[in-house]
């Protein structure tokens, strides 16, 4: 081994996947950076459209984090259980877009600002509510996606290559 970190999605017993170790990380880093820029722009846009005053519950950041967590749950089921996705789909969408979209650093700063502006109970509700809602959203995204992606009785489970059309759907 080279001592470099190994992508946990790489099966070293598959020659084609072993070749990923010889490639530099630049494609993955570029995918994450591009996705992160898009996700952060989307979050900034929503924060600008739905601002909050000091001492008020930051609803925009709350819903960004909850919806982002829901989408992370959906994405992880799709790319690990349903699709055979290109190797850059997960870094681009999961780490990049959704990682840039969700903002747990702003969540902590907003909670601190709530306390500083004399609203400690709102800050505590925001901290606990966001955490509980985000975890529930990931769980819901995973469960609902698995339910919807589950093959009907008597059908084989299709693995659809990301970007391909499904023969069964006639698309």
Could you give a quick summary of the protein structure above?
By secondary structure, the chain is mainly α. It is built from 6 helices and 2 strands; from the N terminus they run αααβαααβ.
Topology:
Layout: H1 15-18, H2 26-49, H3 59-82, E1 83-84, H4 89-101, H5 104-116, H6 120-149, E2 160-161
Parallel strand pairs: 1-2
Helix pairs in contact: 2-4, 3-4, 3-6, 5-6
What descriptors fit this protein?
single chain, 171 residues, mainly alpha, two-stranded parallel sheet, 6 helices, 2 strands, globular, disordered C terminus
Biggest sheet: strand arrangement = 1-2
Uncertain spans, ≥5 residues at pLDDT below 50?
Answer: 165-171
Based on Cα principal axes, name the global outline: globular
Strand content: under 5%
| Helical run tally | 6
Classify the secondary structure makeup into a structural class: mainly alpha
Largest sheet: 2 strands, parallel
Mean pLDDT, nearest integer? 85
**E-strand count:** 2
> Secondary-structure element order, as H and E?
HHHEHHHE
Radius of gyration: 20 Å
The residue fraction in helices comes out at: 55-70%
Distance between the termini: 44 Å
What does this structure look like?
The chain is an all-alpha fold and 171 residues long. The protein is built from 6 helices and 2 strands. It has helices at 15-18, 26-49, 59-82, 89-101, 104-116, 120-149, and strands spanning 83-84, 160-161. The N and C termini lie far apart (44 Å).
